[in-house]
Design a protein that fits this description.
Elements (H helix, E strand, L loop, with lengths): L2 H24 L2 H17 L8 H25 L14 H11 L1 H8 L3 H13 L3 H8 L3 H16 L10 H16 L2 H7 E9 L11 E3 L1 H10 L7 E6 L2 E6 L7 E8 L2 E8 L2 H6 L2 E2 L3
Parallel strand pairs: 1-6
Antiparallel strand pairs: 1-2, 3-4, 3-7, 4-5, 5-6
Helix pairs in contact: 1-2, 1-3, 2-3, 3-6, 3-7, 4-5, 6-7, 6-8, 7-8, 9-10
Length: 288
């Protein structure tokens, strides 16, 4: 093999790991592929013979590319003031399934709420055990500052110390049963998991035109839930401000939040939140 062919073989041995790094940082299989391909192009232009640690060099390059993408996203989103969050664009069923399997929908949601440098530092250290001495130059900080970034991100992902105790385990099971029934459009299963006097409230922007903002009673709520039930396939249980909730997140990008109330083993009520300001003000963390 000539030098370029040998370099290509070495790069292909790292491709899968680099793709995983980029997927966790970007939450997009397509953008992850583009980041990895850009890393290959940069490797071709570099003096590869001078690279002592190729896996480390490639990790740094991919991470910097991802950081640039995340910063560009943050700048683009800073000027958006509309009240309602438009439904995120999903790359396709296969890409969606791969992304959720690789990272997890709940993790994608909380990662998406981190700042660019926090996300990169957290993913590299907690996801791939990259030392802070290597992370620091990637995010333009000292190793000590990079460690603080990762620690702050970890608290935002897992919840801060001293927070309210997690909801009882049975509450999660009820919410998961509700989601399963909603995904399948199963009226009987929905009636079984809803309290007789359940109340559903929703931001108008979260509903199809003409649907009521408030629905009362198990039968009415079950029927309304079936109308918007397809959204449930993008739902995952999370903690919302310390209480049990559901994040509706196509492609791992937060779109709606369901604030759930569980009592006596059934859903006693829930609110569908679609307002951008309200969504931005919620603290979403992983269930323990």
């Amino acid at each position: 093999m000539d030098g370029r062919e040998e370099l290509a073989v070495l790069f292909e041995a790292e491709r899968g790991r680099l793709r995983s790094v980029a997927q966790r940082m970007l939450g997009s299989t397509g953008e992850a592929e583009e980041a990895v391909q850009e890393a290959w192009l940069r490797l071709e232009r570099a003096d590869a013979a001078a690279v002592e640690n190729l896996p480390g060099w490639l990790t740094t390059v991919v991470s910097r590319i991802c950081l640039d993408v995340l910063r560009a996203r943050a700048r683009a989103g800073a000027g958006r003031r509309e009240a309602h969050v438009e439904e995120p664009v999903v790359e396709g069923p296969e890409a969606e399934a791969e992304l959720v399997e690789e990272v997890g929908r709940a993790m994608l949601v909380v990662l998406d709420r981190l700042g660019p440098a926090e996300r990169v530092a957290f993913v590299l250290h907690d996801g791939f055990a990259v030392p802070f001495e290597q992370i620091g130059p990637v995010v333009g900080r000292t190793p000590v500052a990079a460690k603080k970034l990762a620690s702050r991100a970890r608290q935002r992902v897992r919840g801060t110390a001293g927070a309210e105790p997690a909801p009882p385990a049975g509450h999660r099971a009820v919410v998961e049963a509700f989601l399963a029934a909603a995904r399948g459009g199963d009226l009987d299963a929905l009636l079984a998991v809803l309290a007789p006097d359940v109340v559903r409230r929703a931001d108008p922007a979260a509903l199809p035109a003409g649907r009521p903002a408030v629905a009362r009673g198990a039968l009415a709520v079950a029927r309304e839930t079936r109308v918007i039930g397809q959204r449930a396939r993008f739902g995952v249980p999370v903690l919302v401000d310390g209480g049990i909730g559901v994040a509706i997140a196509p492609g791992g990008r937060l779109w709606l939040v369901l604030l759930m109330t569980v009592a006596d083993g059934r859903v006693a009520g829930f609110e569908v939140v679609a307002d951008r300001a309200r969504l931005a003000g919620t603290e979403i963390t992983l269930l323990p």
